[in-house]
Design a protein that fits this description.
Distance between the termini: 43 Å
Structural class: mainly beta
Number of domains: 4
Strand content: 35-45%
Largest sheet: 7 strands, antiparallel
Number of strands: 39
Oligomer: single chain
Radius of gyration: 30 Å
Helix content: under 10%
């Protein structure tokens, strides 16, 4: 690792279960392109590992490259095996001529002692027209060069395989230079370019921006008026986001994974964006999030790139006191009204007025001792039995109770190898090959073996060891390992073949 360490933080809005029994949390760092459709808002974060790469003092780029997601949010790192380095790459300054209308991103592998203009590399983005008014704010509002690509043409891992960084000097190791060049109708690619240096972690197979040194963070404070909580019927609310330090850019407001209205502009003089909420907040707890994205090419007085931020608040609307009402339903791995061995079952009930809730589970009508929460994983002995859940909800207005319809417990999912079986041995005629049983989830109670020469099953070869016969010479030998456990489908794994010499 070069220079100071780089901490990747993530802001993720959780998607709440409408049934009211909990929340399903989504996650993932602000890495590669987030794909189409509504997503939980993710804030960009501090990038740049410093110090300045050794060759940067000898080159004069037009400026730097910013990477943006399909939702218009900055990204600073990701997996080397994911397609592309973002949905958009944006230059920090304008092109030198309006005749330039296309932008392309290239990757180059630094070589110590060589002129940077002679380094090997290749095109890693599509060559696309700019400006792109169809892109989300702020990408769609800039006249600077922009590449638009559906996750790029090659993964970073593919590029590294073709053009690895073999430098041994720590100041040069694991660095790759990205350059955006422009062209136009009848105009070849420019010799000048915009620059970005990324660092690759070869242990975790991840990448992150190394240069420029993106170290000027912001904070976004989100407030609601009137403040939470309210009592139903609730009044409309106004959300206000304040960005510190006040910097030009945009703020988007979200309710869960749904954007509220359009992006709001903030300036360097006030740093405040507001959005009025209509209709009123629904009953219960609703997460609201504000995400600040800096303007393309924005920088503070020292020339460091401004990094966006996000803030989330939970808004509560309480019901008036009245007896709760509900209808419990079992939700299993296959959806509503399903159950299987070792699969987590949810006893889902929709309540009003934040009552106190108790649970009890039954198999064939008999109460299961100790199972008093909203979730339960049926063990193997309950296979084929009818599973139900009884719920009682109480509050100051009274209480109500009921039992869900019965659901038959089905056989559990197949066993899955967490440590795959593997063949070891001399791989020669007369030698003894040995296969490991592997580790399985859930734990296997029985493991069997069957050896094959090519596609032909070897009769009687059903142990973990196998003496290779002469007829296997120059052929491949493999073993099919089958794991079983009560109440589950068998797990089957075919080992890679080994060639006998």
């Amino acid at each position: 690792m070069r220079g100071k360490s780089r901490a990747l933080r993530t802001w993720v809005a959780a998607a709440a279960m409408l049934a009211g029994v909990g929340a399903l949390a989504g996650g993932g760092a602000a890495f590669a392109s987030l794909g189409p459709g509504p997503v939980a808002p993710k804030a960009p974060l501090s990038g740049g590992g410093g110090p300045q790469p050794p060759w940067e003092s000898s080159v004069s780029p037009n400026g730097f490259i910013g990477l943006w997601s399909a939702q218009g949010q900055m990204i600073t790192g990701g997996s080397t095996s994911s397609g592309g380095l973002g949905a958009y790459a944006v230059a920090s300054t304008a092109a030198s001529s309006t005749s330039y209308t296309k932008a392309t991103v290239f990757a180059y592998t630094p070589v110590k002692g060589q002129d940077p203009s002679t380094w090997s590399g290749e095109e890693i983005s599509l060559s696309t027209n700019f400006p792109n008014s169809a892109a989300p704010v702020p990408v769609g509002t800039t006249a600077n060069p922009v590449t638009t690509t559906p996750d790029g043409q090659v993964t970073l891992a593919n590029y590294i395989a073709n053009f690895p960084n073999t430098n041994t000097d720590p100041a040069w190791q694991n660095l790759y230079d990205l350059r955006m060049k422009v062209s136009g109708l009848g105009i070849p690619l420019s010799t000048t370019y915009w620059d970005l240096v990324i660092s690759v972690n070869t242990t975790n197979n991840t990448w992150s921006i190394d240069w420029p040194d993106w170290t000027q963070p912001t904070t976004t404070a989100l407030a609601a008026s009137p403040p939470s909580p309210q009592t139903s019927p609730a009044s409309p609310i106004t959300l206000t986001a304040t960005v510190t330090p006040a910097t030009a850019g945009t703020v988007t407001f979200w309710s869960g994974t749904t954007q509220i209205g359009v992006a709001q502009t903030v300036t360097g003089s006030n740093g405040v964006a507001t959005a009025s909420m209509t209709p009123t907040p629904p009953m219960g707890t609703t997460p609201y999030t504000a995400v600040y994205d800096p303007a393309v090419g924005s920088a503070d007085g020292t020339g460091k790139i401004i990094i966006g931020s996000a803030s989330t608040l939970s808004y509560v609307v309480n019901a008036q006191a009245q007896p709760p009402a509900f209808e419990p339903t079992l939700v299993g791995p296959g959806g509503p009204n399903t159950a299987r061995v070792d699969g987590k079952e949810f006893c889902v009930a929709s309540f009003s007025n934040s009552p106190t809730v108790t649970y009890a589970w039954q198999a064939n009508g008999v109460t299961i001792s100790g199972q008093t929460t909203a979730t339960f994983s049926p063990p193997a002995p309950l296979l084929g039995q009818s599973l139900t859940c009884s719920v009682k909800a109480s509050n100051s207005g009274g209480s109500v109770s009921g039992t869900s319809p019965g659901v038959t417990v089905a056989i559990g999912a197949p066993l899955v190898p967490t440590v795959k079986p593997k063949i070891s041995g001399p791989h020669v005629v007369g030698g003894i090959e040995k296969v490991t049983a592997g580790t399985w989830s859930p734990a296997a109670t029985k493991v069997t073996f069957q050896w094959f020469i090519g596609s032909t099953k070897v009769a009687g070869a059903t142990k973990a060891t196998f003496r290779v016969p002469r007829r296997a010479l120059h052929k491949k030998v493999h073993c099919v390992v089958t794991a079983s456990a009560p109440g589950h489908l068998n797990g089957v794994f075919k080992t890679p073949g080994v060639k006998i010499t």
